[in-house]
Amino acid sequence: MLMSKRFAQGLLVLLISFLLAACGSVKIKDFEGQEPEFKIESYFLGETWGWGMVQDYSGKITRQFTVYIEGYMDGDTLVLDEDFVYSDGTEEKRIWRLTPKDENCYTGTAGDVVGEATACNYGNAFHMKYRLQVPIGEREWVFTMDDWMYKQENQVVFNRTRMSKWGITLGHVTLTFTKQPLD
Fold first, then answer.
1. How many Å apart are CA 107 and CA 77, to the nearest integer?
2. Block means of pLDDT (10 residues each) for the chain, length 183 residues?
3. Long-range Cβ pairs for the range 22-26 (8 Å, 24+)
4. Does a structural domain hold residue 10?
5. pTM, whole model, 2 decimals?
6. Is residue 21 assigned to a domain?
7. Number of domains, the chain
8. Residue 69 and which of 17, 48, 80, 143 are 20 to 30 A apart at CA?
9. Range of the domain at 66
10. Is residue 86 assigned to a domain?
11. pLDDT, tens digit (0-9, with 9 covering 90-100), for 123-149
């Protein structure tokens, strides 16, 4: 059976899009030497506060939240004890354990992360990839998370995470972190 011309053209456009996306992606090492330097082991020690939102593929805000993080060292492992409160009153807890592999890279685990996260830190940026288990209705979905953090002046960190499944972007999570609570 022959493919229709329209289907073949659509498939070709999709293939070219994937190839272009793979070629043009930003690499964490591109941030080497950028200021202000962002070392997660020092930034996240102690108390950190964050404000964020979840957006679907169209950009519509589907949830807003705050997060309080208590960070401490357990040997050479950075532990991030995160408490989320969503605008609908839902609460969630995640405890990250980030262990250095070398001077710039880490492996990470958390209760709702499938397998290990991989992460690297260069200059003012931190990049982490992992698979997150998310309950939706009666099912558990696993999303690929592509997480980028960028340190700014005055101890502020911007965080942008791409959520995808089967390579298709389903949404983004955007956060701002600070070392001082804001009222």
1. 10
2. 57 50 73 92 96 96 96 97 96 97 96 96 97 89 96 95 95 95 65
3. none
4. no
5. 0.83
6. no
7. 1
8. 143
9. 28-178
10. yes
11. 999 999 999 998 888 999 999 999 999
